[in-house]
Design brief:
Blueprint lengths: L2 H27 L6 H23 L5 H23 L1 H4 L23 H25 L2
Length: about 140
């Protein structure tokens, strides 16, 4: 396996693990109850840790398409969630999210960094890295 493919898998694995541990920290340590959209983002982030970890162990970069799909869907949900937190016209038409409103902001660092924003950044890193892995695999054939 090429070193850049292995490094890409490591980046995906570390990013997904960091996002997973961060979400668990916010919910289990800080006591922030996740809203419904947060749960969907978790459902798409948590398996990436396993998928990328197993792919790294097996030195199998062909998993990049799977991680790209998970990251694209998860990133889309994160972007929408961030939008309903920050954009008035979306916030006013936001759906009811269960016990915890999806428009709520447990954190708001520097006026723009919220939990969905952090998830969006993680999904973007995973998506971009996965796309590079796909490109590098085609080049090596």
């Amino acid at each position: 396996m090429q070193k850049r493919l292995e490094n890409g898998l490591i980046l995906i694995c570390i990013t997904a693990l960091t996002a997973t541990l961060g979400s668990l920290y916010f919910s289990e340590v800080r006591g922030y109850e996740p809203c419904e959209l947060c749960w969907y983002q978790r459902i798409l982030m948590y398996p990436i840790v396993l998928i990328a970890g197993i792919a790294l162990y097996q030195k199998n970069a062909r998993i990049a398409l799977t991680t790209a799909v998970f990251a694209l869907v998860g990133g889309s949900i994160s972007l929408y969630h961030y939008g309903i937190q920050k954009l008035t016209f979306l916030r006013d038409s936001a759906p009811t999210c269960g016990n915890v409103p999806c428009t709520g902001q447990y954190i708001n660092y520097f006026g723009f960094i919220t939990i969905p924003f952090l998830a969006l950044i993680a999904f973007l890193i995973i998506l971009i890295t996965s796309l590079f892995l796909l490109k590098w695999q085609k080049e090596s054939k």
